Amino acid sequence: MLSGLSWPWLALLMAAGLALDLVLGEARRWHPLVGFGSLATRIEGALNQAPASRLRGILAWALAVLPGVALAAWIIHLAPWWLACLLHAALLYFCIGLRSLRDHTLPIALALARGNLAAARVLTSYIVSRDTRQSNETDLAKAGVESLLENGNDAVFGTLFWFLVAGGPGALLFRLVNTLDAMWGYRNERFLHFGWAAARIDDALNWIPARLTAWSYAWLGNRAQALACWKEQAPAWSSPNAGPVMAAGAGALCVALGGPAVYDGEVEQRPPLGCGKPAEGADIVRAWRLVAQAALLWLAIVGALALFSFGVFHA
Question: Where are its TM segments located (predicted)?
């Protein structure tokens, strides 16, 4: 392990980070990722100048990501073991977003259950980039479920994977990379070249976690249908990682996602995801449960590896 942590310690600190997230939720003030977003905006404003350049995008990415990750790793390396453990758990807490997914999506399901379409449209607009002003219940339910499934990988399982690889600095690296992709990884005139590195690096770091996430969704739901949807539908999506995650998740839940959505006043016909009945408000709750159960599955697997390694070394 790059973190230098044994499996028992990884299991304990992973459980601690998840518990802190579920109990405390996102930090209301002084959240490191919020500060990072402000820093990234300033760096982009200074370096994203005409003519368009991938090289300046690579430099901006390095300036935004590498100093913070290197500093975190250096502090942990120099800290006494008990403080290093606390820092690993704290970094995981700040980087993971399991409770945040619940807090941002379940209110949409509640508004739909109460028939309050206007409130559901506003709440959904907070978590997706599509235009929700004219969306019906199915459109909003699809948006909520898709957001949960995709961000389950970005905010939870990708973070856990890189925590297992490199401890707290690994989790921090992944979330900073993922945040830059969300800020710069657009294929428009402004970011096509400047954001190229941010998008490609995020794709690379997400490749393994996305497929582990898809397998987790499949294992906990309709497995045969999830795997079939993954195989048949994921290649049609432009993102190499969102496709497997959302196709497998939709198949596991037996709901139909994808299809038309409005972006910047234009209707975009997206490839289908999953199969079965159209999404309903209650499917947002089912999707949240799938993500939460998958997090418990990962924790159980890491715990089993910890027990196995402890038994091997103490036999």
Answer: 6-24, 58-75, 155-177, 295-313
Q: Which two tokens stand for residue 286?
A: 């089912």
Q: Is the whole-model pTM more than 0.85?
A: yes
Residue 280 CB contacts under 8 Å (≥ 6 apart), including other chains: 112, 137, 138, 141
Residues in the chain, overall count: 315
- SS in 3 state form for the chain? CCCCCCHHHHHHHHHHHHHHHHHHCCCCCCCHHHHHHHHHHHHHHHHCCCCCCHHHHHHHHHHHHHHHHHHHHHHHHHCCHHHHHHHHHHHHHHHCCHHHHHHHHHHHHHHHHCCCHHHHHHHHHCCCCCCCCCCCHHHHHHHHHHHHHHHHHHHHHHHHHHHHHHHHHHHHHHHHHHHHHHHHCCCCCCCCCCCHHHHHHHHHHHHHHHHHHHHHHHHHCCHHHHHHHHHHHHHHCCCCCHHHHHHHHHHHHCEEEEEEEEECCEEEEEEEEECCEECCHHHHHHHHHHHHHHHHHHHHHHHHHHHHHHHHHCC
What is the b/e burial string over 188-209, where b = at least 16 CB atoms within 10 angstroms of the residue's CB?
Answer: eeebebbbbbbbbbbbebbeeb
pLDDT in tens, the chain (315 residues): 677 788 899 999 999 999 999 999 887 777 788 889 999 999 999 999 888 889 999 999 999 999 999 999 999 999 999 999 999 999 999 999 999 999 999 999 999 999 999 999 999 999 998 999 999 999 999 999 999 999 999 999 999 999 999 999 999 999 999 999 999 998 888 999 999 999 999 999 999 999 999 999 999 999 999 999 999 999 999 899 999 999 999 999 999 999 999 887 888 999 999 999 999 999 999 999 999 999 999 999 999 999 888 765 555
The residue among 289, 276, 215 whose CA lies nearest residue 250 is: 276
